[in-house]
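Support request from a user on the community tier.

User writes: "When I paste my structure tokens into the form, the page sometimes reloads and wipes my input. The last time it worked, I copied everything first. Here is what I submitted, just in case something in the input itself triggers the reload:"
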């Protein structure tokens, strides 16, 4: 069992969850054990004054670890998305997500409208955020049926991400609302990247996912590349940018939104670029980067920064997959750690 105080700083809300490992692993079956029709119908009546005609589960893929997500159709012809949190820890980050959507929207960046947020009054009630249903599909779902379109959407996904990085905020790291102002929870980008790093390394060594030699090498690698983490101003980062969180409009063929901001941060835009790269092949990543950078000059130390960020991301992924019991997916994270280290030596 992993015991973490809910008020502790976090690097990855999923890997660093304060819930016990048993509770995290039980989430694999959370859709089966949840009466969506009753709960969603009740919420829709209270929040929208509408009746639910149909409910369909979303986000049930291998990357959906945290919330129950449903699309609902109302008798008034409205399509909405419900994200529900049924954990013992109240989802206060819903307010952070809503604030960031609003900031992006005011900056001219396409984002879903937030209709309502309710945090529980009773122990067994779910927290929920009620959102506008935008687009036609998430990209992961769409590509299951149209795999040949991956190259086109990789390019446009990169171009869309660039828009999210035009907004700057104070601080660095995981976002928090402080006196109703959205900002990063750390003073420097280096501090944000190093949050829980030592704990992460020790966890992986304890569970035989890293050797002591690798632990030392990783620690030395971060010291050696310390200057790469110097950053004066940070931009808004999605924090979890991959195909399941990218929303497209199939009719126009455009990327129109990025959803699920539970890992949103302030920091170096290249972090989001690196994160996307942990999900795709080199060929697809190259197309994504062409879309992201366009005709602009690529920044210095690009390859090393991407490798350093991916090293940190893969360390977190390995821990997360162990905690959630996704044993079959740990190997890919371990390979990513080794590959990132090679690029930094």
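"...and here is what came back when it finally went through:"
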């Amino acid at each position: 069992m992993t015991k973490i105080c809910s008020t502790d700083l976090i690097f990855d809300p999923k890997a660093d969850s304060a819930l016990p490992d048993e509770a995290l692993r039980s989430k694999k079956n959370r859709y089966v054990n949840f009466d969506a029709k009753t709960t969603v119908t009740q919420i829709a009546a209270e929040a929208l004054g509408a009746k639910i005609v149909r409910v369909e589960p979303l986000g049930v893929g291998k990357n959906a670890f945290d919330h129950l997500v449903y699309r609902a159709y109302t008798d008034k012809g409205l399509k909405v998305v419900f994200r529900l949190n049924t954990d013992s820890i109240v989802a206060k980050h819903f307010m952070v997500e809503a604030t960031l959507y609003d900031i992006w929207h005011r900056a001219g960046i396409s984002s879903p409208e937030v209709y309502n947020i309710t945090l529980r009054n009773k122990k067994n009630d779910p927290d929920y955020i009620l959102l506008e249903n935008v687009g036609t599909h998430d990209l992961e779902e769409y590509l299951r049926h149209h795999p040949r379109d991956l190259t086109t959407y990789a390019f446009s996904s990169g171009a869309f991400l660039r828009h999210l990085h035009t907004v700057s905020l104070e601080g660095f790291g995981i976002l928090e609302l402080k006196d109703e102002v959205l900002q990063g929870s750390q003073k420097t980008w280096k501090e944000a990247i190093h949050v829980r790093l030592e704990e992460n390394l020790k966890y992986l060594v304890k569970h035989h996912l890293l050797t002591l030699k690798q632990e030392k090498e990783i620690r030395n690698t971060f010291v050696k590349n310390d200057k790469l983490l110097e950053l004066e101003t940070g931009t808004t980062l999605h924090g979890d940018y991959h195909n399941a969180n990218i929303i497209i409009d199939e009719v126009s063929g455009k990327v129109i939104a990025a959803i699920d901001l539970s890992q949103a941060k302030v920091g170096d835009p290249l972090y989001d670029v690196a994160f996307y790269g942990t999900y795709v092949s080199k060929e697809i990543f190259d197309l994504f980067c062409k879309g992201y950078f366009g005709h602009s000059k690529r920044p210095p130390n690009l390859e090393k920064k991407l490798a350093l960020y991916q090293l940190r991301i893969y360390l977190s992924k390995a821990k997360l997959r162990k905690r959630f019991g996704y044993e079959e997916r740990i190997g890919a994270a371990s390979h990513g750690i080794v590959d990132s280290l090679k690029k930094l030596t």
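Agent notes: The reload is a front-end session timeout and is unrelated to the input. The mean pLDDT is 92. The radius of gyration is 20 Å. Escalated to web team.
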